Amino acid sequence: MIHSAKTMRCLSADNVAALVAQHGLAACIAGIADNIAADFKRWQEFEKSSRLATHSPLGVIELMPIADQQYYAFKYVNGHPKNEQLGLPTIMAFGALCEMDTGAPLLVCDLTLITALRTAATSALVAKWVARPNSKSMALIGNGAQSEFQAVGFHHLLEVTEFHLFDVDYKATDKLLRNLAKLGLKGRRFTSVAEAVQGVDIITTITADKTNATILLPDDIKPGMHINGVGGDCPGKTELHADILDMGPVFVEYAPQSRIEGEVQQKPQDFPVIELWELLQGRHPGRTNPDNVTIFDSVGFALEDFSALRYVHDLANRLGVAGSPALIPSLPDPKNLFSFMPPAL
Amino acid sequence: MIHSAKTMRCLSADNVAALVAQHGLAACIAGIADNIAADFKRWQEFEKSSRLATHSPLGVIELMPIADQQYYAFKYVNGHPKNEQLGLPTIMAFGALCEMDTGAPLLVCDLTLITALRTAATSALVAKWVARPNSKSMALIGNGAQSEFQAVGFHHLLEVTEFHLFDVDYKATDKLLRNLAKLGLKGRRFTSVAEAVQGVDIITTITADKTNATILLPDDIKPGMHINGVGGDCPGKTELHADILDMGPVFVEYAPQSRIEGEVQQKPQDFPVIELWELLQGRHPGRTNPDNVTIFDSVGFALEDFSALRYVHDLANRLGVAGSPALIPSLPDPKNLFSFMPPAL
């Protein structure tokens, strides 16, 4: 199946936001979660590599490529915690979905918003598989840019209804409370992590500090809890006390990358982890007892962006969103690239 | 120096072509060559890596990242020789120039046209350093998409005035002859490689076949010639008979990459090569005698795209080209990504 380069779409941040709003945020997170589940189930079909990271004193810039036989996808993404002080997002991202047979880009688009959606989709998907059935409450530790999307994901995919909020930045929690109210969701502010996590079914940690922090201590964890650790995602950046990782099975996306970037960077190279595909292909039983503690050490893997880009591409086709002028020239005679120069030359 | 994300530009293929036409093709190639020379002279300041290639039965897709302390750049580029049959360019490319301190993309643009310009700029720059002084004639073996740009580069940077053309595809030479006439340049068709190269100062091979070909034989090479080997640029894709590489010093962009992708893939790992920075920093004398044969084994390195992206960025700023809507959202409160969703939600 060969597409013409003329079907290429370039979607701006505004285009993507309009697309998500038109289809519905919850529906998009659910749809992306379905794609992610389907893609992890065929894990063996992908050519995978750890992301290519370029570190600087203030942050990191990464390229995340992945391919199956039909599609190639990559994401550009940064992580600069001090950006906030400059009025810039901590995380900005864009990427492309391309055709393996021709190399033609089919979709180039903003992934800043989509990164938040696919992270929430992955978090909720994993929790649906391993959190205690009928989980109703979740602590959200870190109330920054991604927190609303986590709440929407867990509400719509798991029917979580009660959100316990904590952030060292009081205004971040203000903002999250306002946005949850707009969504018809119930949030409650707590003044410490210990208080916020008390009695909840699920704890999501999603903070941005580029340090080895211990946001969660072993004493915070009670039998049956599921921990969704999202913010520990690059070397030297962790959120969980290392002993928490001994309290139950630790699920990761792609072990070679997680051992460098995830919470498990605190553990020896042979520390046992379960890759998501093992869970989704039924090779690991997941939770076997309501009292199990389960841990998802999420760092974000290229396959999730692949799944999300396919989703955005399908949605843009279905809803007929045209986007901006093509990034790649369309040539009547491909050997005559020179003809693409305006005659003014 | 911190830029605002609001200065981000997204330039379509049409935008880039208009920009090049407005400033002049020859001036752009010369300007890019100046940037490339300046950047190779400060080679040690760059964080370099070989490109990340994903191969498939029909072609290759590559990501080429590079960074100094101020900027990060990458290019997406494919190589699919059979695309022509589908009416698609063999090579399509786009990329970005980003700020190291914030990760903010400053420029995202088509690089299909710019790849041809920067390849011609690099070819002409190297020839200016090592080809015989007062070279006036060049054989162009391969008259495809990039051939006009090579001709313009060598005409304007070296004052080459006579172009000997050969291609197995008769129509490709027709097209090149037409385009050269538009540019006021003199081309002459030959019916074999051996005839085309006879008596010239410089031979440029720039063919697209994804095979180990021997476009040039040792007998074709006469004392004093400079060989600009451009088309041998991925594993299993070469153009020169291996013995030609023993006829004079072989210049490469970045040895670890060239040993995998270039003509020197035909030679042992310890085959002597000279990296361009050694030439441009004066650590290698280049040509020492009018009878030397010199060989540039060009594969295309990320630094050339970095130099070209900086050039396009400066030019777009100077000429005030706005481009398409921003690929990355601009947020009043960076922690409130959710606010970027339209209120319709």
What does this entry look like structurally?
The structure is a homodimer of 345-residue chains. In chain A, β14 (250-252), α7 (255-261) and β15 (274-275) form a beta-alpha-beta unit. In chain A, α3 (112-130) runs parallel beside α4 (147-158) and α3 (112-130) crosses α9 (302-319). Chain A is 31% helix and 23% strand. The radius of gyration of chain A is 21 Å and the shape is globular. Chain A is α/β, with parallel strands linked by helices. The interface between A and B is large, with 90 and 91 residues.
Quickly give the structural class of chain A: alpha/beta
Number of strands of chain A: 16
Question: Average pLDDT value of chain A?
Answer: 92
Helix-strand pattern of chain A: EHHEEEEEHEHEHEHEEEEEHEHEH
What spatial form of chain A do the alpha-carbon principal axes imply?
Answer: globular
Strand order of the largest sheet of chain A: 9-8-7-10-12-16-14-15
CA-based gyration radius of chain A: 21 Å
The poorly predicted ranges of chain A are: 1-6
Largest sheet of chain A: 8 strands, parallel
